[in-house]
Amino acid sequence: MLWASDAIAILLSIQVAIALGTGHHMLLTHGFKSVTIGYCFFLTLLFYITDLYNLRRDQHSDETAALVVLDAAIAAAFLTLSFYFYPRWSFGRSFFVSLFLGTPGLVMMGRILWSHLQGALTHPSTVAVLGDGPGMNELSKVASEHKLRIVKLPMATENGLPIVAEDRLIPVQGVSGKLQEAMTSLQPDIIVLEPLASLDSNTARTLIDARFSGVTVLDFPTAFQMLSGKLPLNHMDGQWFLSAHGFQFFESNMAVRMKRLLDLGMAFALLLVTSPLLPFIALGIKLSSKGPVLYIQERVGLNGRNFRLLKFRTMSVGAEAAGPWTMKNDPRVFPFGRFLRLTRLDEIPQLVNVLKGDMSFVGPRPESIVLVNLYKSEIPYYNLRSAVRPGLTGWAQVNYPYGSSVADAVEKLKYDLHYIQHLSLLFDVQIVLRTFRTVLGRQGSQ
Questions:
Q1: What is the DSSP letter of 333?
Q2: What is 160-207 written as a DSSP string?
């Protein structure tokens, strides 16, 4: 709905700009399809990259308005440039001025109207948790970020205590009907089963009835990752991996081959586009620090096999002696290397690794042999991340900064396993777009 609001606002702004630029009230369908589709697609893509489709964003904030204006300016400049390639399109200055001024205003009006309608027509979903394990606090935290209402359901075998839900008491009469009465009063949209919840026959029967009446019933790991985009490894056991949905990408040879073809095409195209930068990057490294231009290190790849990873060197020679982890504002990184890391230009040579088949465009970050051996001994299920090729970017990379401890590695593994479970070509496209957002938002690597 938010995208539709933006699209309508953009179409209206183009219609007004055409009327002002040509002096005629022509409809968009009269020869302006290419302009309309291109401008609308490019601008909404910029909105996505700059995180304007984050539904938790305040649509009334100055930051949102500033990003809309910035994206509209970039899209208007892109549209202006395209007119040099299509000289048959001829508009006056009033077209571009009215388009640039009208688009942000109409988009913000639509977004403010959308936020009011959303508040009036929707209500916070109620998530009822059955059980009382340590994962409850984590689930409550991520649910509050999504403005969900969390309540606790009693077990059918609990003694007759009142149910507490958002500062109100729900009196319960008897034991056998306590769960049914609580569900009737709370009317949850989703029921989440805590990992430690044990279901007796009465509870199971009540949950089955609820599910067949339209209430969604989820296990805790599934609900948690739907809200957070990562697996709650601290509250899981190995049996979940045997019965969980997903992990189906590996069963399709066609999907695996298509991903590989896309890797080859994107890597080759990016090498062609970035090739003019390579001499300047090499010169900058040579002028900034003594040593080779490339940094080559053994990393662990698909199925635990080692490969030689290529990067532009961003640290002083011998920096590995100080430890395998990169710190924030690491003094080992020379100034030009910091720029390369921030813009991700240091990873251009890894495109060669993609072409060779050592890496994919999207996947878990390739780690050094030392760190992999450490993490395997300290972190359960860490070996599962090697089920796919490591990537230039990945779900963990766009959600979590560089880690410098085992605890950080655990957090990144939660995102990596979520990616492996839901791996698809569409998910890869989403991660690539979020990578652009990360780089443009100056949230590059340390």
A1: B
A2: SPPEEETTEEE---SSTTHHHHHHHHH--SEEEE-TT----HHHHHHH
Q: Give the lowest-confidence range in 2-6, 133-137, 187-191, 282-286.
A: 133-137
Residue 103 tokens read as 């688009």
pLDDT of residue 174: 40
Side-chain-side CA neighbours of 185 within 13 Å: the count stands at 20
Q: Is 156 helix (H, G, I), strand (E, B) or coil?
A: coil
Residues 241, 247, 252, 257, Cα dihedral to 10° = -130
Closest CA to 354 of 251, 252, 266: 266
Q: Judge contact between 139 and 129, C-beta under 8 A.
A: yes
**8 A C-beta contact, residue 409 and residue 403:** yes
What span, in angstroms and rounded, lies between the C-alpha atoms of 25 and 401?
51
Can you tell me the distance from the alpha carbon of 48 to that of 230, in angstroms, rounded to the nearest whole number? 21
- Among 42-46, 264-268, 318-322, name the one with the lowest average pLDDT: 318-322
Highest-scoring range by mean pLDDT, 88-92, 164-168, 258-262, 429-433? 258-262
338-372 pLDDT, tens per residue?
Answer: 888 888 899 999 999 999 999 999 999 999 998 99
The CATH T-level fold of domain 126-228 is Rossmann fold (3.40.50)
| Radius of gyration of the chain measured on its C-alpha atoms | 27
Q: Which of 85-94, 130-139, 345-354, 393-402 has the lowest mean pLDDT?
A: 85-94
Pairing assessment for the beta strands 360-362 and 391-393 based on DSSP bridges:
parallel
List the chain domain ranges.
2-121, 126-228, 249-440
The contacts of residue 435 (CB under 8 Å, 6+ apart) are 344, 393, 397, 398
| Residue 353, C-beta contacts closer than 8 angstroms, at least 6 positions apart | 307, 309, 310, 359
pLDDT of residue 274: 92
